[in-house]
Amino acid sequence: MPSILFICTANQCRSPMAEVIGRDKLTRSYPDAHWQVGSAGVRAVDGYPATPHSATVAGRHGFDLSRHSSRALTPALVAATDLLVTMEAAHKQAILRAYPASAGRVFTLAELVGESADVDDPIGGPLEEYVQTYALLDGWIGQAVARMAELAI
Q1: Which range of residues forms the domain containing residue 59?
Q2: Domain count, the chain
Q3: Regions of the chain where pLDDT drops below 70
């Protein structure tokens, strides 16, 4: 069963949205792969819900984040995951410093679609920033599905 982990800072807005988008797109594109898709944060504290704006925006697209619980990126998660997809280059660098054996399995989402920009953190911003972040995630994950499958399977 191929596994993908979407990673941001606190695992409360970008990576939870990426998780539900990614799971949906990967499952629709490769239903026989039985994907294991999750999310975590490089500075997350376990047990916090998704931000209200993240839950609202995801809900508008048919996804329920009400049961999301933040979790910290751990050595066990890194070791058990086929592909680690970060929201920022700084997240990727932090993972590579802490877990050098993950090289070749960790990429920024932007890298997977041939871009160089980070997915900006909307935390603390107005709802419209979350709408824009969701749209960016949805578009880039849609573009990256084949590449993610190639790297994870």
Answers
A1: 3-152
A2: 1
A3: none
